Amino acid sequence: AIPRVLITCLLLWLGCRWLVATSDYESLILNGVALAFIKDMKDLIYTTLVSAACKRECELTRIRISPCAKYERTNFVASFKALVWGFLGVAFVLVYITYFQQVLVDYRWDVASVCEEWQSLNYGVHVDV
Hints:
Layout: H1 2-20, H2 25-39, H3 41-49, H4 52-60, H5 67-70, H6 76-100, H7 111-123
Helix pairs in contact: 1-2
């Protein structure tokens, strides 16, 4: 379990760097799909390389689950955990973009002044900075 967590964290870090370095929207979508492909590679390898007999053995392996865990209803704790994970995800993105990204050197949220001419040419909109 520890190597899988380390690989996932490394993939998260490198994937963020890779997606931040993308220069246009088309490449962003393509890189996002490539990142999803890399993330799902273990399932693809399992499906392709493991024999049908081994897959059948895995499917027939049963893990006994207690009856109360089988019919557990959603409660406050489960909903709170989901909310905390959502906030942690948003916090990671904000902290990464603000402090840890190394792709855009000296990035200070100054895109509006750089894009003002382009916006006025393409949309006829004047942006106050």
